[in-house]
Amino acid sequence: MTDSDFLREIAGIVPTAAAEQLGEIALTLERMCIDVTGAMSRTAGEDAVDRLERELTRATHGPVEDVDTEFAVLFLDLDGLKPVNDTLGHGAGDDLLCKAASALTSLAARPTDYVIRWGGDEFLVICKTNGYPQSPEDLGAIMRDKFRAGLEIAGVNASIGFSFTTHEVSLKDAINLADKKMYLDKELRKTNTIADALTGEEYLNV
User: Fold this and answer.
1) Is 123 helix (H, G, I), strand (E, B) or coil?
2) Of 26, 40, 71, 125, which shows the fewest CB atoms inside 10 Å?
């Protein structure tokens, strides 16, 4: 059991005001579980995903529906990390990972944004859409383009897939879909092909 889980269990048996304080402490502990790159660790990230999934379920299927609680989800895989590790050493690879994490956290910097190192060269970004004027779909596309540009400035290239939650699409489903779209993006970029984000139509990048 993680510290966050322990505090959430306690929150179920204490008065509401104290439970709210413990919830804030749990959130702080999650954000303290930082990976060496500066992003949230996978373990802390999975805890956050579980908590956000519960929040989304309450908002979309509770007695009072909150249509504003939705999430844009982006899944990123860095290009060329293995060749960097093989030719320049793991120190250079770690530097590449840190540059990527720094670029992502600077662009997804709101308290309700999460940048998680999901795997060796994979990052997961979750952005709560409350307060953004864009729809979750449009926000995902905007963040994807911002991330790609920010990473390129930092000297990092990445394949990126994005998705978003709806009344029918859970957060974990959106993560899985963003992961699949990331692999599609990787294949399309290998062939210098671009897919329209809305229609899926492919065309050559000339």
Assistant:
1) strand
2) 26
Quickly list H helices, the chain: 3-11, 16-32, 42-61, 81-88, 90-107, 136-153, 171-190
pLDDT digits (tens, 9 = 90+) for 175-199: 999 999 999 999 888 877 555 444 4
Q: Are residues 96 and 185 in the same domain?
A: yes
* Integer Cα distance of 23 and 10 in angstroms: 10
* Residue 4 belongs to domain spanning: 1-32
> How far apart are the C-alpha atoms of 134 and 130, rounded to whole Å?
9
Above pLDDT 70, what percent of the chain?
74
Sign of CA dihedral 153, 155, 157, 161: negative
> Token pair 């400035």 is at which residue?
153
Indicate whether 44 pLDDT > 70.
Answer: yes
- CB 13: neighbour CB atoms within 10 A? 8
CATH number, domain containing residue 110: 3.30.70.270
Q: How many domains does the chain have?
A: 2
Q: Do both 11 and 59 map to the same domain?
A: no
Mark whether 56 and 95 lie in a shared domain: yes
